[in-house]
Design a protein that fits this description.
This protein has 13 helices and 24 strands. With 485 residues, it is α+β, with helices and mostly antiparallel strands. Helix 8 packs parallel to helix 9. The chain binds manganese (II) ion. Its EC number is 2.4.1.-.
Length: 485
């Protein structure tokens, strides 16, 4: 069971309570003064494909209404070969009456990455500001981004992304404090609270927040620096994965990726993405192949399909990495994203955890909600060899980790229970999370002194792992297998 996100930007998890940090932040943002005469001017680039009329126009009007005239060079709309009628003459007519707005049309479907580059190549501003085509810029959104790039040319700066309700289009804002971006070892983008080390580094609540990765389409970058960094990887098709590739590249090649807490842009999280995700896998593989060094194996272990995916030629991107003398991925993990746990993946101790007696059945964990991963029961299901929700790692701390997701889960047994449930992993493994995988394949839970057995779930046709008194039965024997064949 593999679930795919349907949004261009991953959904922001439920807002956290407003703290002191935040209320003082809001006031301080209002007090901020800007040296308008000396700030760089920006081209705002909005690529779209078959976008609805109202959301597209709302984006354009909100940019025009909230951007100070002196800072806005132009708004460039890039039509990625849409075929919907309202985006043809009607759109051209509507825009022709607007100041500073230019419409560029692709002659064939290019995909998000190349459509954006088309806009960038036509841009006349010093700074490129990329937006999605269903956004609403908030008063004061632009100044902090340009101010920061004015101070530091190698900073790539994202606004805080506020939520616009899909059904009512009501601006819900973002009542929690800004979140930063990360990823898990499937190379799926994740949201995180600001870590303590970063709070300490920030000189004030209105200082930029460093973020290991960006969510997607909303950021500002110096045009010169964007070109220096190698703009986008034009070998990337359609969309998906390009945000992580660009994030790795920014950090590893000497830039910084930041969120400015004073810049707010609303984003409609669509129910259905207009772009197909079919190319996203190849894009992620390109990111892994160029930037992740030996750590790409951790990704491939969790997503074996990726190994088979044709990803095109990355020679030029590797040359770019060498030319810019970019740092390695180990540096990135240690310096930029130390919160991410790096799996051990010892040979023979990761992959599918398969039973010997109950043929073709594997440990399987399928939480109903990607944002609520913990607390559910581990089951057994026909082995599918696709990694993902059947991927587990047995660690030297004797944990059975479910570490395709962030934060990582560890299999635990609650007191007095015989079922296996998922808990958060801890720095040091708690006793109820310790299992001994013995040479004969038995999986011994130390605390309860019992063995894990493949068993039929009561009054059903499904199977689950349960704790039972240890026997020599093959139903108590387990082994790891990396791939199906
Ligand atoms: Mn979007």
């Amino acid at each position: 069971m593999i679930r795919e996100c349907e949004c261009l930007l991953p959904l922001i998890p439920a807002a956290r309570p407003v703290g002191l940090f935040l209320s003082s932040q809001r006031e301080r943002c209002k007090e901020k003064k800007y040296d308008y005469d000396n700030l760089p001017r920006t081209s705002v680039i909005i690529a779209f494909y078959n976008e609805a009329w109202s959301t597209l126009l709302r984006t354009v009007y909100s940019v025009l209404e909230t951007s100070p005239d002196i800072l806005l060079e132009e708004v460039i709309l890039v039509d990625d070969y849409s075929d919907r009628e309202h985006l043809k003459e009607r759109l051209a007519n509507e825009l022709s009456g607007l100041p500073k707005v230019r419409l560029i049309r692709a002659n064939k479907r290019e995909g998000l990455v190349r459509a954006r580059l088309l806009g960038a190549s036509a841009a006349r501003g010093d700074v490129l500001t990329f937006l999605d085509c269903h956004c609403e810029c908030h008063e004061g959104w632009l100044e902090p981004l340009l101010q920061r790039i004015h101070e530091e040319e190698s900073a790539v700066v994202c606004p805080v992304i506020d939520v616009i309700d899909w059904n009512t289009f009501e601006y819900l804002g973002n009542s929690g404090e800004p979140q930063i971006g990360g990823f898990d070892w499937r190379l799926v983008f994740t949201w995180h609270t600001v870590p303590e080390r970063e709070r300490i580094r920030m000189r004030s609540p209105v200082d930029v927040i460093r973020s290991p990765t960006m969510a997607g389409g909303l950021f500002a970058v110096s045009k010169k620096y964007f070109e220096y960094l190698g703009s986008y990887d034009t070998g990337m098709e359609v969309w998906g994965g390009e945000n992580l590739e660009f994030s790795f590249r920014i950090w590893q090649c000497g830039g910084t990726l930041e969120t400015h807490p004073c810049s707010h842009v609303g984003h409609v999280f669509p129910k259905q993405a207009p772009y197909s995700r079919s190319k996203a896998l190849a894009n992620s593989v390109r990111a892994a192949e160029v930037w992740m060094d030996e750590f790409k194996e951790l990704y491939y272990h969790r997503n074996p399909r990726a190994r088979l995916e044709p990803f095109g030629d990355v020679t030029e991107r590797k040359q770019l990495r060498a030319k810019l003398q970019c740092k390695d991925f180990k540096w990135f993990l240690e310096t930029v994203y130390p919160e991410l746990h790096v799996p051990e993946d010892r040979p023979g101790f990761f992959g599918m955890l398969q039973n010997k007696g109950l043929k073709d059945y594997c440990f399987d964990y399928n939480p109903p909600d990607e944002n609520q991963i913990m607390g559910h029961q581990v089951i057994l299901y026909l082995c599918h060899g696709m990694g993902q929700n059947q991927f587990f790692e047995y660690t030297s701390q004797k944990e059975i980790r479910y570490n395709t997701h962030q934060p990582e889960g560890c299999i635990a047994v609650e007191a007095g229970m015989d079922i296996l449930t998922m808990h958060l992993c801890k720095e040091t493994a708690p006793e109820n999370q310790k299992f001994i995988l013995q040479e004969d394949g038995s999986l011994f839970h130390e605390q309860s002194q019992k063995c894990v057995q493949a068993a039929r779930k009561e009054s059903s046709d499904s199977f689950v792992p349960l704790l039972r008194d240890c026997t020599s039965s093959d139903h108590q024997k387990w082994f790891f297998k990396e791939r199906m064949f």
